[in-house]
Amino acid sequence: MMRHLLTFLSCLSFIISAPGQNLPDEWYVSDDDRRLVTGGLATQGLFHEDSVPAIHLWFAQGDFWNQLIANYDSGTPIMATLIHNGQTYDSVGVKFKGETSYFMLPPGAEKMSFDINVDEWVAGQQLAGYESINLNNGFQDNSIMREVVYKHLIRPHLPTAKANFAKLYINGQNWGVYSLVQDLDGDFIREWWFSNDGARWRAQAPGEGGGGGGQWGDGTAALNYLGPDTAAYQQYYTLKNSNTPQPWDHLVTTCDKLNNTALGLLADTLDTYMDLDRVLWHLACENAFADDDSYIHKGKSDYSLYWEPETGRMTTQEVDGNSVLGPNNVGWSPFYHADNVNYPLLNRLLAVQELRQRYLAHLRTVITSSLNGAQGAALIQQYRALIDTMVQNDPKKLMTYSQFTAGVTQLTNQLNTRRSNLLGNVEVAQAAPTITNTQHESSAGLNIAPPAGEPAHVRCTVTSNSGIFQVRLRWSHDLPGRFQSAAMFDDGAHNDGAAQDGTYGVDIPGQSGGTWVRYYIMAEANNAARSMSYDPAGAEHDVYVYQVVTPVSPIDAIVINEVMASNSATVTDNNGQYEDWIELYNRGASAVDLQDWYLTDTPSEPTKWQLPGGTVLQPDAYMIVWADEDAAQGAMHASFKLSASGESVLLFDPDTALADQVDFNAQVTDMGLARVPNGTGPFIIQTPTYAANNNAVGVDEPGDNRRLRAFPNPSSSAFTLQWEGTEAEQVGLYDAMQRLVWQGMLRPNGRIDVSGLSSGTYTAVLGAARLRLVVMR
User: Fold this and answer.
1) pLDDT value at position 747?
2) Closest Cα partner for 196 from 251, 242, 130?
3) From residue 250, how far is each of 195, 348, 522 by CA, in Å?
């Protein structure tokens, strides 16, 4: 029992502390386990900011340049071979991209921007984990770094593409330095949201660039209400991807609620349909950096939208950034275009006092943390040192080297000018309350997760020279989800200490075991503006967090022994269908009646699916539950499905105490996630052993695997994989936690670049073959 308890506590610590387990890649828990943060992680691998990767494109077509020009209007790519870090990627798709950066280049200029789709003709092929990348030419940016600087500085505040620099070669010829920018594709969405199961739009007309079929700010694609007919919206927005039925209805509803709700009801009503906080952070970042490729300037074109199915809410996305901090823009008001009805996100939202003050609080945070002169200057100099020599030797550059050096200096100066201009605004300069000493407490102790069902007492200290109008706790038991609001009191009756001592308190109600609880504090000054502040200052993407402790079952004989979350050809259920399955195993000495036991894929819903009566599991016996959400097919068909991209499976006893749990990331189709040794060991990916002992497959060591070989092994940079055969096959690379860190198509003697991975043990998977690789730094 003690061993079982220690195993559970270790698992619980991993759930809370590990970045990525059941969380998107860009979400993480702080080192002290107190904060759940979205954004701000250092970029790694291909987008690591301390190096400039070389991208080689080879075109077999003698007239490839003319083909690229001819295909610009249709957007049809042409085929090329890409080489990066010694790895060859066949049959990638290449096309020119951009609008002004394409049409307005000087005569004879060849430094075009490129859109490269690595998987255009080879399904699943990825460049260091990415299916597509953009190489941007920095048109009208003599520093060549505005976009990279901008994306670096706003990534802590909102979902933003990764960006650094790359050196491009075409058919062996140096094409110079480019901004290497992550594509806003499904991979990007999955890094910031819990799935890519929603719908994504670009706010411009299909097949058109520039203003998207009209002038900027023309009231067409800025979330303007165009009536109930979805066809009206399809003229001005391009649906880039959708995995949900009737996606256009969500866009129409959002526009309707934004434009037609009474201002007095707008904040509460619209928050149901739109992630207002994330939108306000987006607007604040665009304004802080005077981004003229933006919603706030164009009212269309250079922003995108994502409808999140998990919450049913729309949010806006940053798209471009190569012309931030322009000399004509650094004097913009912090409420630029807020008086223009064609920009409803500005005109409507900033007309509501609560939302205006929230926007201002976020803007102050951006100014303090990201528009910081010293920080910005250091980053700009870091980038200059990285690319300076390459720019000097760039035969295709769109400016002279002296213009480049002047552009770097100008960028630094404009950053400081913009900061000064914003701080000089009366509303921006308005003092807001100071919030300190935020903490929660229960019988478990201070800042420790409470037991199931027990409330958490939240308190904080708030001061303000203008007095305090109100202090509110905002909290959520959903991950993701909306926040509820509760008033906090300084009356000595809410676990807040003495009355009128500046400490405010209120309780978060008790929650079920396993529930993630997020919370933050809002304080409002008692001045005319009712200026606001937040703790943490980055709320709602930086919040306090705890996960309610789940009681542990005294029965440790029944375990989850194997899981298959992607079954395409392994075994069929009683209806002849290939469905996901969960294997339970009795490792004890006595039979256990599993009636009233539960399986779930949601920690906060322990009773999601109840095992049927008569399900007695004998010692050393196995039981299969089909996770297909199809109870009509039989008693052993659970009410939930598994996600091949990763989630959790939990087993609860009749008292809803946790008996076992497995958390997994991306799975390999037709491979099992199994305990090895059988019934007791950690989970590994291996050939499935449906309703049988997992030891039959065993743990493949490099010397035991006769199909798959790698050299050198260990390695610090790349592995060359060898196997029998000549055709390209899909290879996956998994870390010690079974997280997919690389996947792509390789031929025998192909190379896997691991220069961006941390030291440790990894597993290469090729079909049923597995090979242990060691990365050493």
Assistant:
1) 83
2) 242
3) 17, 19, 30
Residues 529, 273, 548, 665, CA torsion sign: negative
> Taking Cα atoms as reference points, which of 776, 645, 654, 758 lies closest to residue 712?
776
Question: Pick from 286, 18, 1: which is nearest to 151 by CA?
Answer: 286
Cα 142 to Cα 130: distance, rounded to the nearest angstrom: 28
The sign of the CA dihedral 502, 507, 508, 513 is positive
pLDDT at 776: 67
Q: Which of 42-51, 259-268, 713-722 is modeled with the greatest confidence?
A: 259-268
| pTM of the complete model | 0.81
Average pLDDT over every residue of 202-208: 85
34 exposure class (CB count in 10 Å sphere: 0-12, 13-18, 19+): middle
Cα–Cα distance measured from residue 295 to residue 288, given in angstroms and rounded to the nearest whole number: 13
Closest by CA position to 363, among listed 301, 414, 430, 416: 430
Contacts with 227 (C-beta within 8 Å, 6 or more apart), sequence order:
none
Residue 157 and residue 541 in contact, taking contact as beta carbons nearer than 8 Å: yes
Q: How far is CA 413 from CA 112, 153, 326, 436, in A?
A: 28, 16, 11, 34
CB-based contacts of 55: which residues, under 8 Å, 6+ apart?
82, 83, 84, 116, 135, 166, 167, 168, 169, 180
Sheet harboring 740-746: ordered strands across? 740-746, 729-734, 760-766, 769-775
